[in-house]
Write a structure and sequence with these properties.
Layout lengths: L7 E3 L2 E3 L3 E3 L15 H12 L4 E8 L19 H13 L3 E7 L19 H5 L8 E2 L13 E2 L2 H20 L4 E5 L5 H6 L9 H4 L3 H13 L6 E6 L10 H13 L4 E5 L18 H15 L2 E5 L5 H9 L5 E4 L1 H5 L3 H8 L11 H18 L3 H5 L1
Parallel strand pairs: 3-4, 3-12, 4-5, 5-8, 6-7, 8-9, 9-10, 10-11, 11-12
Antiparallel strand pairs: 1-2
This protein binds flavin mononucleotide.
Cofactor: FMN
Protein name: 2,4-dienoyl-CoA reductase-like NADH-dependent reductase (Old Yellow Enzyme family)
Keywords: Flavoprotein, FMN, NADP, Oxidoreductase
């Protein structure tokens, strides 16, 4: 039994293995921020491909907290039904249906990647994608050329905390089995934590953890006891004076006390600027593995490692080394949605295609036999 393909139970959630499809924005929501047939098809492929947990992309808790016009959201009840359809398809095909909730704060109002991923401007408005006012803890833009955020008043911050709770309630009603707070990549939660982006004097600035802790409490109030709560962090900030690792350990201990179960260890998307003051940070789990392992030991949280996992053996090695409990796969799954079942074969754990969809199984067994026969030295003679 490999660790990657051993089942996982957290609270009442049972996953068939530890392969997690990392949240990936598709910029393909409809004009009301609802999931579309694209999301259904795109995400179901990963469940058919054997992943244990499949995450729906960052889903906005407020309309102004989207990053692009194509983002999906859960800021109103009309957005529940199309996501419920996705959640059901994931469950029906053996995966835990999971969703990430997010708010981009001062990094909102951006172009899709295929239009440049900079701040929206006049050319985008001419295309029907106008910019909208962005908000943040303090009037400090992400970088040159980025809009200066409107400072949120204390009551507006409280309303956003409530928006997280409302979105968690909608995710529950949509039938998701796991939920993640996007606390990384320089988005709103990360902005409040950062001494660089948060220079407030109210209680959200006097203690920079306050917003994150209130979000955790608000989400937990609406998120059922028997379903796990994940929290994504950027382990490595890329700016002097940014969040340091020791503070992250303390914060995660406090989040654990408020019902967070899993820390999803991402990095980058820094709090500073585009580009991050000439500094960059590797996106690979290899780069962060030691920190992830330290965090696991120091907090007692389950750890999800993510970043440039390409080979199944890499994933298995991180689990065996005690650096992670779950492995997130992003781009590699876009390249090969069957990454999980292929990984299982490659690690020698999938006998007779047992975990492939039954609609395919017997054909694949016969395909393998036919392919072996073709590859055998006598094949060309017998075929001749
Ligand atoms: C197309 C795309 C969209 C992404 N969208 C999100 C997102 O919605 N939320 C998030 O936390 N990370 C997002 N990410 C980051 C991934 O979840 C993942 O952490 C990152 O790609 C590193 O893993 P990988 O090397 O396996 O791709 C996105 C990445 C890609 C490629």
């Amino acid at each position: 039994m490999t660790q990657l393909f051993s089942p996982l139970k957290i609270r009442g959630m049972q996953a068939r293995n530890r392969v997690v499809i990392s949240p990936m924005q598709q910029y393909s929501g409809d004009e009301s921020g609802r999931a579309t047939d694209w999301h259904l098809a795109h995400l179901t492929r990963f469940a058919l491909g054997g992943a244990g947990i499949v995450f729906v992309e960052s889903t906005a808790v407020e309309k102004r907290g989207r990053s692009t016009h194509g983002d999906i959201g859960l800021w109103e009840d009309e957005q529940i039904a199309p996501l419920a359809r996705v959640a059901k398809a994931l469950r029906d095909n053996g995966a835990v249906a999971a969703i990430q909730l997010g708010h981009t704060g001062r990094k909102a109002s951006t172009q899709t990647w295929w239009h440049g991923h900079g701040p929206l401007g006049e050319a985008d408005a001419a295309r029907g994608e106008p910019p909208w006012p962005v908000v943040g803890p303090s009037p400090i833009p992400v970088g040159n050329g980025w809009p200066t955020p409107q400072t949120l008043s204390t009551t507006e911050v409280e309303a956003i905390v409530q928006a997280w709770a409302n979105a968690a309630r909608r995710a529950r009603e949509a039938g998701f089995g796991a939920l993640e707070v996007h606390g990384a990549h320089g988005y709103l939660v990360h902005q409040f934590l950062s001494p660089v982006a948060n220079q407030r004097s109210d209680r959200y600035g006097q203690d920079r953890w306050t917003f994150a802790l209130e979000v955790a409490e608000a989400v937990r109030r609406e998120w059922p006891e028997d379903r796990p709560l994940f929290w994504r962090v950027s382990l490595a900030d890329v700016i002097d004076g940014g969040l340091d690792f020791d503070e992250m350990v303390g914060l995660l201990r406090a989040l654990k006390e408020r019902g967070v179960d899993v820390v999803d260890c991402s990095s980058g998307g820094g709090i500073a600027s585009y580009p991050t003051q000439g500094r960059s940070v590797s996106n690979s789990l290899q780069f962060r593995a030691e920190l992830a392992g330290t965090l696991r030991a120091a907090t007692g949280l389950q750890v999800m490692g993510v970043g440039l996992i390409i080979e199944p053996q890499q994933a298995e090695a991180h689990l065996q080394a005690g650096q992670a409990d779950l492995i997130g796969v992003g781009r590699e799954a876009l390249y090969n949605p069957n990454w999980a079942v292929h990984a299982e074969v490659s690690l020698g754990a999938n006998k007779e295609y047992a975990t492939w969809p039954q609609q395919y199984r017997s054909y694949l067994i016969r395909r393998a036999a036919a392919a072996d026969a073709l590859r055998s030295p006598n094949a060309s003679r017998s075929n001749a």
